[in-house]
Amino acid sequence: MAVSLQSRVTVIWAGLIVATGLSWQFGHGFGFREKFHYATAAILIITFVKIRFVFLDFMELRTAPWPLRMAFEVWAIAACVTLLGLYSLGV
Amino acid sequence: MSSTYEVTDSAKPHLPGESGVWMFIIGDVLIFSLLFSVFVYDRSQEVALFIEQQQLLNQTFGLVNTLLLLTSSWLVALAVHGARTGHLSQARGCFVLAILGGIGFVVIKYFEWSEKLTADLTIETNNFFMYYYLMTGIHLMHMFIGIGVLVFLWQCVRDAEFNTQGMGVLESGACFWHLVDILWIALFALLYLMR
Question: Domain B59-193 class?
Answer without folding.
Answer: mainly alpha
